[in-house]
Structure formats: C-alpha cells, structure tokens
Amino acid sequence: MHLSRFFPLLMSLLLLTACDGGNSATERKKPARKPPPVLVEAVSVGKETIAKTWERIGTLVHRHILRVYNQEEGKITHLPRYEGDQVKQGEILLSLDDKLLRAELKKAHATRSMAARKLSRLERLRKTNAASEENLVSAQTELELAQAEVEILNTRLSYTVIRAPFDGIVTRRLAEPGDIKPRNSHLLTLADPKSLLLRVEASAQLIADLAPGSQAKIFLDLPHIPVLQGKVQRIYPTLDPVTRQGKVEIRLQNIPAGIHAGQYARVELTGQARQRLLIPFSALRRDRNGEYVYVIEGNQALRRDVTSGSRFGSRIEILDGLQENESIVKRGFMDLKNTTAITVSG
Does residue 305 fall inside a structural domain? Predict the structure, then answer.
C-alpha cells in the first residue's frame, strides 16, 4: 500500500527532470551573437615640418673677464676702484711704488752715456791706429748692453702702472693700498658688461638639435624684466665625462639694466625644424608590453607596436612603427581589441 501510493509521483518527477535536461542541451546548441562593430573616430597619419622646444636652466656669466696680475713686485700706492665701479678704457686701475726702478733706470742711462763716450773716443783713435780693433769692438758691445739695460728698466717701469684695456666693471678687489705684493699676484678682476651671456648645460640630444643662431627665449625671475630674446652663439665641442652634459652659450640681443652675472634664468630653446611623423597624443596607447596604436585595415582595428618621440602640444612624434597616410583610431577605445570589427564615424 505504501509503495503503490508514491510510485506515480516518482515517475512524474523523472519525466520533469528529463524534459529540463533536454531544454538545457538545446540552449547550449544555439549560436552566440556577434558583438556589434565598435564605433571609432579615425585620423590619417601625416608628416609636418616642426621644431622642438627645449626648456632648460642657465646662468648669466661674463664671457670677457680680465684678471689683473702684477708683473712687478712692490708696494701698492694707488688702487682707487671697488667692486661694482665702472671704469673707462685707459683709466689707471692700480700703481706700484716705482722709486727703486726709476733710480736703476737713471743709473742705466748714465752707464749708457759713458759707454757712448768711450766708443766715440776709440773710434777717433782707431782712425790714427792709436786704438786696436779689439778695443773698438769691446766698446761697441758695452754700449749695446747699456742700451738693453735701459730698455729692460723702461719695460719694468711700465709694469708699475696698470690701465683698463676696455670699458668694464670691477667684480673683485683682492688688495689694498700699502700691501706689498710679489710678482704675479691676483689683485683685481674686471668684466666687460657687454659680454654678458647665458650659459646652459645641455644633453647630447639637445646639442644635436641646435645650431649657432637657434632662437631662445630667456625668463628672469624679476618683475621689471620682460622676456628676453637671444640666439645660440656657441656650442661647446665636448661633454663632461661625469655628467655627460655639454655647454651652450646664448647671446642676449638686448641687455637690460639690473641684471647680474651669476643670476639664474629659465630658457626656452628652439631646435632645428625637421619633418616629423605626428599623431594625436590621444591615439597612442600603452600597456605592460609597450606603446601601440590601432591601425585601421578594412573594417578591422589591428594593434601595431610603435616607438614614440617628443611631444608637441596635443600631438606626439612617432619614430618607428607607422607610415605616412595610414589611418589609425583616434577615439572610441571602449571594447576595442586587436582584430575588433569597427565602424568609422563621419
């Protein structure tokens, strides 16, 4: 009685289970729907002649500097100029005590006069054979030596007064009147204010992109100084073996008042204009494998590895991986993968 009551119910459950299993198998056999094409915006790759702008930090320096040394030892008697003083060409920078040299020069003049009189007397005697040829030659030599001594002392005497060789400004004063200095002591430094220029440390890549005459904009952190214009005047031929940096000198077209050597400045350097392959910066993608873009071929977007270079505003240079006139995806990267079907808008 108990089994007969539940037998029909068991059969019903088995039939329902069999029906459900059949429906699942049927659903698995249905083909999967293809995703619709991804809507993208495309751009054509093109070349453009454009110059790169480099930003660097530089220092204002005087290119023409004179370090004043004394060529004679002695006591300083006159040293009128101090740091910051302007001097004119030919103005006396310093004087040394010359009393001893003047006394030696007076003695040398006397010796020369005596040698000249002796030679004159021997020449008269030689005409009558009263003096030998040897004595005459000896007297001539004595006169030449006396003359040379006068010239030496005149030269040494000229070293006791040092004059400015150009209009300049005193930047260092290293002695005082009354000091007794040995030869070749550094006493004063004079700079030519017209030679003020900007010296910038530059990498090998920057140096390769510049040439004498390249344009530069100079920014000084002074409220009353406007943006200054300049040009590359000199590129040093070697790099520092430690820092791997070279040097570039920039000539200022106009030197305003109120700027000084040693001052910090920012500079924008414009490199040489070159043909570059440019794409929108938004078109360049990156992942752990590197940089890439999606190239449009037919109705597909294909991943292409590339190497980028410098950025120019909203665009970036491509050094390798693309050719001119190829079309790439600019926007619409959502759900975009390699070989994805696409529809180009516009």
Answer: yes
Check pLDDT > 60 for residue 9: no
Q: What are the φ and ψ backbone dihedral angles of 21, each rounded to 5 degrees? A: -60, -35
CA neighbours closer than 13 Å in the CB half-sphere of residue 99:
4
71-100 average pLDDT score: 95
Instruction: Look over the chain and give the mean of its residue pLDDT values, rounded to a whole number.
Output: 89
Range of the domain at 125: 98-159
Q: Is 237 contained in some domain?
A: yes
Rounded to 10 degrees, what is the CA torsion of 105, 109, 111, 116?
160
Q: How far apart are CA 324 and CA 59, in angstroms?
A: 42
Whether pLDDT at 5 is above 60 = no
200 lies in the same domain as 268: yes
Question: Span 150-155, mean pLDDT?
Answer: 96
- What is the DSSP secondary structure assignment for residue 185, as one 8-state letter? -
Give the pLDDT score at 20: 52
Res 22 pLDDT > 90? no
- Residue 313 pLDDT more than 90? no
Of 137, 159, 181, the residue that ends a domain is 159
CATH number, residue 213 = 2.40.30.170
Statement to judge: residues 102 and 146 lie in one domain:
yes
19: in domain: no
Answer whether residue 180 is part of any domain. no
pLDDT given for residue 225 in this prediction: 87
Checking if the pLDDT of 154 tops 60, the result is yes
Q: Are residues 123 and 265 in the same domain?
A: no
Cα separation values, 98 from 74, 104, 147, 162, 165, Å: 8, 10, 20, 13, 21
DSSP symbols for 215-268 = EEEEE-S-TT--PEEEEEEEE-S---TTT--EEEEEEESS--TT--TT-EEEEE
Beta strands in 122-184 (DSSP E): 161-163, 168-173, 180-181
